[in-house]
Each structure stands twice: as C-alpha cells, then as structure tokens.
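Q: My labmate handed me this sequence with no annotations at all. I'd like to see what the chain might look like in three dimensions before we decide whether it's worth expressing. Could you predict it?
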Amino acid sequence: ETGTPAARRGFEAFQARPCHACHVPLATSPVGAPDLSDVSERLEPAALERVLTEGRAPNMPSPAPPLTAAERADVIALFGWMATHRADLGAEASAALTWATLPWWEYE
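A: Here is what I predict for the chain of 108 residues:
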C-alpha cells in the first residue's frame, strides 16, 4: 500500500460520515456539491478547517458526527493528496466512479 497515513485516515473519516452522499470524486455532483479533489487549492487551510467544523451555508451542514481536530487534519491531508494526484485520478475516472472504488491508496 502507498499513500500517506494521514490521507488514509482522512479517507476513513470522510467515509464514516455522509459527506459522500453529496460529494462525488472528480466532478460536481448532481446536487451541486463541488469536486473535493481540488478543494485544498481553492480554500486556505483555515477556511477548510472552518468548513469541516461548521459546514457551509446554505446547503452543507456540519459533519455528523463532528470531526475531531485530528480527523480534520487528516481529511485536509486527504484533500491535499487528492490535489497532488488529481491528474492520475482523472485518468482512472469513469461515469460509475464512487469514493469506495477510488484507488487513492495506490498513489504516493
């Protein structure tokens, strides 16, 4: 297995919450939730921390159950990892791609 331990833990924390019900990998979802593979390039770390704590009005609730500080750091590490490997991940993308099938651990 490859990938950072923090990114792996971030993936587990992300999967343990309903985030993936709205966010889909490498695309804007049908409900308008943005692609998170480049969120670390669009938002500063403090803004990411705030969104992962409070949600984002009007449509994104705060994560439930709430993320701990360590989990937030790991999810931010996951987003950074995804941004770094976005081109490689895009080559793997298909219309049926889901978070569960995304081979994120194969990239370092």
